[in-house]
Amino acid sequence: GDSVTQMEGPVTLSEEAFLTINCTYTATGYPSLFWYVQYPGEGLQLLLKATKADDKGSNKGFEATYRKETTSFHLEKGSVQVSDSAVYFCALIGSNFGNEKLTFGTGTRLTIIP
Amino acid sequence: GAVVSQHPSRVICKSGTSVKIECRSLDFQATTMFWYRQFPKQSLMLMATSNEGSKATYEQGVEKDKFLINHASLTLSTLTVTSAHPEDSSFYICSARDPSGGAYEQYFGPGTRLTVT
Fold first, then answer.
1. Per the CB < 8 Å rule, is A43 touching B108?
2. Dihedral (C-alpha) B24, B28, B33, B36: value to the nearest 10 degrees?
3. Phi, psi (degrees; rounded to nearest 5) at A18
4. Dihedral of CA B41/A107/B113/A38: which sign?
5. In sequence order, what are the beta bridge partners of B98?
6. B110 vs A43: CB contact, 8 Å cut-off?
7. So what's the pLDDT on residue A9?
8. pLDDT at B7 over 90
9. Best of B47, B59, B106 to disrupt the A interface by mutation (most A CBs within 10 Å)?
10. C-alpha span between A46 and A53 (Å, rounded)
11. Nearest Cα residue to B8 out of B115, B111, B116, B117
């Protein structure tokens, strides 16, 4: 079945540091890929997505590129801020017709220190 | 953006009692809602898919008689944990799909922390 593997946390960085959170997946065909973020005390929010190979999703300074050859969707940000502290989840929806089920990675807790 | 609420945010109950968790879409009508369970330091596990006006579809290994799901209206789905036991203690999260948006857009509630003593 489909699965998502992401970098285990927690990750602690200083403000303005470069961020990478690795995510790889296993799925048949061409799944859609997502990054969700969960801020303290809040629900999950969609951060960015990519629905086909070589697509780059971007939002709030975060980027991730759908790499079919390496089955990866790594999250990056050039300069993190304290407000980026949250838990980040990589997820996919399989390419089967009518499939709406999200498969999540375990989440990576990110803490940014001023 | 679309907002999904959950109630209660936290609940503590005694073993053997039943607990109902509500999931509401506040500014859109959700034909499909999803219920997830999250264990500490683990990913969200889909428990069931709830469609308005029909029976929920449960994932393999999830006891349908234990976790009763009702999606009686386009804005409300409920999860009832029946005869709860300590092993049911977990973080339960719902999400709702807005049919007017993209096919993959799911909006998540803030979650409900259930503790069974």
1. yes
2. -60
3. -85, 135
4. positive
5. none
6. yes
7. 84
8. yes
9. B106
10. 19
11. B111
Burial class (CB in 10 A: 0-12, 13-18, 19+), B33: buried
B88: tokens are 């049911």
Handedness of CA B57, B59, B62, B67 (dihedral sign): negative
Q: Are A79 and B17 in contact (CB under 8 A)?
A: no
Chain A residue numbers touching B95 (CB-CB < 8 A): 44, 102
In terms of Cα–Cα distance, which of A83, A91, A93 is closest to A108?
A91
How buried is B112 (Cβ within 10 angstroms: 0-12 exposed, 13-18 middle, 19+ buried)? Answer: buried
B51 band by pLDDT with thresholds 50, 70 and 90: confident
Q: Which residues on A lie below 8 Å from B6 (Cβ)?
A: 43
